Structures are given as structure tokens and as C-alpha cells.
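Inverse folding, one chain.
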């Protein structure tokens, strides 16, 4: 989807249309931008940018509160549109998914035609635009979907994949952030074609295990299947506050609220975790995490809150204020996941 949250707001509220808009954050400079409209992006405003920075770049920017229930409802409708064409759908987030249309349900026979029909349905039924990338594997399709946004449609056929990757700037590759991109450029590696010149052992020597991925991907090799069921690796909640917290009492009150949200999500997913992690972001935007692991899985609210507060007590907060707190559980373990799947499918399974 194109600037999903912001586009929904501009669709529903005519006064926002054609204006620089940020979903999330605030005009006081507190908080972080979740999504920026294309009008705001022209000024350099981006997702995950602080409100303060967004205001500096675009003084007239409008901030609105997220309406996640609305976005979820729209996302559900979009998923229903997808399901008309294929059952092989792998959601990445509310606004993005992989679709395998090798066996399309309507017998259309063309991935390009299917993408055009999906885009048209989204526009007609939801009055929103989407961009699609079509290719032979996940990597190329994902990159292609970001080309010609908004309302883009890019097809990279089998005969074009090699040339496409050869010309692709290194910063467009998965796993290549600013630090890695800078390192590559110091090594005179600017494109996929440049990476392709290095043997696999050299890529691993310079970039660790990701080097194996780079070696394959620059040759167009990506055999990952579209996964219709993604295992939950972690589950949590966090909050960025309207003002920096400076006392333990304030932090405890916020942790109580966050803990209840996490507890409810665990119960909804029928999960228990062995590891509880506390996330803290200070007023200067530095961030730390602290965690504690148990011998057996837990989903008890009192244990979650007690552990989070114990972890907070071990952090040096002297002369520091806190702008964000988060709690998450992970390390669910194979037994819990498999048991949950069995229960969902109505199967009775025994595990040793």
C-alpha cells in the first residue's frame, strides 16, 4: 500500500488531502512519525523520524493520531481481495504481503494481469492506491514493488532479473543498512554487479553470515517460499510518552498499562514465553534492552509486571529521563507453538 496510514486519513478526512501529513508524533515535538503522506515526504519526512525533526523539515506538517482499528479493518478487506486470486498469501504487515500466484484461482494465467486486477479492486472498493512488484522470487518482487510509487506496477521477468540486480544500488539490498552500505562503498562496491565480482568466502569474511545471502541474491537465487503461516517469534507492546518520565512511580504506572496489553495479546494468541524483555528509550533517543529468562514458559500478568519492574530497577536511571518503555515475551518454544497449531486445527497430538 502507498503511505498506508496517511492515505487512509486523507481518504476519510478531505481537509488533509494535498497537505503534508504525519500519522503519529505530535506538534509539540514528542513521539515518532509512523507514516508520512507523499506531500510530507517531499520535504524529507520519513517513517520512524522524530516529530521534532519532521517539524524542522516541514514546519507546516499536520500530525494526526493513529486509528489502528480502522487500518486493521482496511487491511482485512485488502486480504479478502487477495484471497479471490490465491490462497498463498504471506502478510508482512498490515499494508504489505507476498502472493504466490503460480496457481491462480480464477485461471487468469498472468501475474501481471492479476496484479492489475488487485490494484483496480483496491482502488474501486477502498479508494486507495497500491503498488505491486512482479517477478520470479521474493527478493526481486519486493524491490520491484518500491519502484514507481505511488500507484506503481513493475514487472521484472526472468530474462531481466540478472541485469536488474546488477544495476541495483547496494543500499537497496536486504540486510544493508547505512553502516554496511558505507563499508561497501569504501570497498568500491556500489551495485549488485560489483558484489557479484567477489567470491563467497570474501563476502563472508567482510560481512559475516549475510555474505552467503549476498552471494546468492546477486545471482538471482532466492528459493524462499511464500509462507501462509508465520510463527510468532516475539510478542509485546510499547508506548512513547507525551512527556519524558523521570520518576520510578511514573514508569511503574506506564509499565502496568503496557503489561496488561501484552498479557491480553498473549492470551489471545494462546502463547507463553520463557524470556521477558524490557525496552527503554531515553530522552536523547539512545535505547537499551534488558531481559530475564525462566526455566518454564509464563503468561502470568503478575510475573510479567514484576519481572519488568525488576529489570528496570537494575538500570542506572540517574540524571536520565525516559521517553519510551516496552515489554515483550519471546522464546515460546516448539511445544507451545505446535500445541497451539494442533488445537487450532482440531487435531490431537502427543509430544514426548
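Residues assigned per position:
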Amino acid at each position: 500500500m502507498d503511505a498506508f496510514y496517511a492515505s487512509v486519513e486523507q481518504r476519510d478526512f478531505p481537509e488533509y488531502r494535498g497537505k503534508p501529513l504525519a500519522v503519529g508524533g505530535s506538534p509539540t515535538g514528542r513521539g515518532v512519525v509512523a507514516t508520512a503522506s507523499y506531500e510530507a515526504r517531499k520535504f524529507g519526512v520519513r517513517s520512524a523520524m522524530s516529530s521534532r525533526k519532521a517539524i524542522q523539515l516541514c514546519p507546516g506538517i499536520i500530525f494526526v493520531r493513529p486509528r489502528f482499528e480502522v487500518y486493521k479493518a482496511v487491511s482485512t478487506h485488502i486480504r479478502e481481495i487477495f484471497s479471490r486470486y490465491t490462497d498463498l498469501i504471506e502478510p508482512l504487515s498490515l499494508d504489505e504481503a507476498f502472493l504466490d500466484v503460480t496457481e491462480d484461482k480464477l485461471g487468469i494465467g498472468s501475474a501481471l494481469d492479476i496484479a492489475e486486477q488487485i490494484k483496480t479492486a483496491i482502488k474501486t472498493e477502498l479508494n486507495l492506491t497500491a503498488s505491486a512488484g512482479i517477478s520470479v522470487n521474493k527478493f526481486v518482487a519486493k524491490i520491484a514493488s518500491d519502484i514507481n510509487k505511488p500507484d506503481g506496477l513493475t514487472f521484472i521477468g526472468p530474462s531481466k532479473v540478472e541485469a536488474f540486480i546488477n544495476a541495483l544500488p547496494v543500499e537497496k539490498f536486504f540486510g544493508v543498512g547505512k553502516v554496511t552500505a558505507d563499508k561497501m562503498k569504501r570497498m568500491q562496491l556500489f551495485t549488485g554487479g560489483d558484489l557479484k565480482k567477489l567470491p563467497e568466502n570474501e563476502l563472508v569474511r567482510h560481512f559475516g553470515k549475510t555474505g552467503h545471502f549476498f552471494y546468492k541474491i546477486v545471482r538471482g537465487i532466492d528459493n524462499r517460499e511464500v509462507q501462509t503461516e508465520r510463527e510468532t517469534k516475539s510478542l509485546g507492546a510499547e508506548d512513547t510518552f507525551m512527556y519524558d518520565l523521570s520518576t520510578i512511580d511514573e514508569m511503574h504506572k506506564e509499565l502496568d498499562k503496557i503489561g496488561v496489553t501484552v498479557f491480553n495479546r498473549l492470551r489471545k494468541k494462546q502463547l507463553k514465553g520463557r524470556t521477558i524483555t524490557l525496552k527503554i528509550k531515553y530522552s536523547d533517543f539512545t535505547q537499551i534492552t534488558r531481559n530475564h529468562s525462566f526455566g518454564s514458559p509464563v503468561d502470568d500478568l503478575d510475573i510479567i509486571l514484576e519481572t519488568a519492574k525488576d529489570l528496570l530497577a537494575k538500570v542506572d536511571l540517574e540524571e536520565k529521563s525516559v521517553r519510551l518503555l516496552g515489554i515483550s515475551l519471546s522464546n515460546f518454544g516448539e511445544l507451545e507453538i505446535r500445541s497451539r497449531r494442533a488445537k487450532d486445527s482440531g487435531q490431537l497430538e502427543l509430544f514426548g
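Residues 69-159 form a domain with the Alpha-Beta Plaits fold (CATH 3.30.70.270). The two ends are 44 Å apart (CA to CA).
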